Amino acid sequence: MFKPLELFIGLRYTRAKRRNHFISFIALTSMVGIILGVMALITVLSVMNGFEKELRNRILGVVAHATVSEPDGALRDWPAVQGEVAHQPHVLGAAPYIEGEGMLSASQGVSGVLIRGVLPGEEPRVSDIGAKMIAGRLEDLRPDGFGIVLGKELALRLGAWVGNKVTLVTPQVTVTPAGILPRLKRFTVVGIFEVGMYEYDNGLAVMNLADAAKLFRMGDTVSGLRLKVDDLLRAPAVAHELETKLPPGYIVSDWTQQHVNFFRAVQMEKTVMFVILLLIVAVAAFNIVSTLVMMVRDKEADIAVLRTLGATPRSIMAIFIVQGSVIGIVGTVLGGVFGVLLALNVETIVPLIEHLFHVEFLSAEVYYISELPSDLQWPDVINICGVSLVLSLVATLYPAWRAARTQPAEALRYE
């Protein structure tokens, strides 16, 4: 359809000065709109990808990539299962844990908490809590020492710091001649951690596995094994493979099942944001319709002359498709280049803007993530640019079709 003649004339029309400057203004506006739309789409999706990656890393710094347990919540003979699981492909580490709920009280308050019993020597294989300690060490959790490590927000709520005593009340009860009494145990705070997720900093307490076993009367059993895999995005496949290799009766779940609603909400937000920002590109692209319709009216005499010289309707249509496509292609390419540059440097540009104008977009006192993270993904760039090009091409079809239907006699009647 696009022969050298049609391509040449279409490009010449694009470069030529307009007799009607309003047409040039609309064409320029369309191109700028496409540039801004594509640039905004790439930058916003990159920032949302960055937030999703940051949240995922923070969540998985505390939550295991996968867990192995039994239906009744008590994993028996866990050392044998640990040895078998640890040698499986893609599994980097496996550590036992005991999990339960309780209520902590101290001088300034009372708070419900999730209790997790761990082995301090093996926990770094599956979580980052040991690396997120802001006071004390995870290794200070010794068997029968009844020490406890609290999240920073939980410690502030209770008014307890390293060296202070806290009282833990568990749902299990003790039957005595005086009646049924709740189980209470005094613990010494030996460490404080901060992982950057309020849910865990405010509601998680960690103790030694042996102390948790006595507290919850678990004996030699544990709640399960926590696993870390080499690629967290492959955790569902690794979990399924492990479940087929382990004897019947074991349940292997992955992090996507535990936080499916959260990440589904993030994905839905990205999709909605993509659609909303795509409307900017769509409006700019369909401004090409206005530009070409007026161009066709302005060039009716030229079209008639070309038809009388032997140009076919197909050739006329191709000329205006080329002319409109140039606007879309140039706008998309420039928008893609500027968008990629902005997405790659947003972590530098935003602090510069904050410094120059003395503003703070994400206050560290309000948000755990006080910087704008960016994660540029090339499939997003390709999809955005591809959609922009398709919209620009579609916008040229109707005006080009109108140009092809121009009758030479009618166009030249008053010339």
Task: Give an overview of the whole structure.
This protein is of the alpha+beta class. The protein has two domains: 204 residues, no CATH class; 191 residues, no CATH class. The protein contains 13 helices and ten strands. Helix 2 packs across helix 11. The two termini are 30 Å apart. The mean pLDDT is 85.
Cα distance spanning the termini? 30 Å
For the biggest sheet, the summary is:
6 strands, mixed, barrel
Overall mean pLDDT stands at: 85
**What oligomeric arrangement do these chains adopt?**
single chain
Q: In angstroms, what is the radius of gyration?
A: 32 Å
Count of distinct structural domains:
2
Structural class by helix and strand composition: alpha+beta
- The count of β-strands is 10
Q: What fraction, in percent, of the residue positions are helical?
A: 40-55%
| H and E order | HHEHEEEEHEEHEHEHEHHHHHH
Strand content: 15-25%
Physical arrangement of strands within the biggest beta sheet: 2-3-8-5-7-6
Number of helices: 13
- Flag low-confidence runs: none
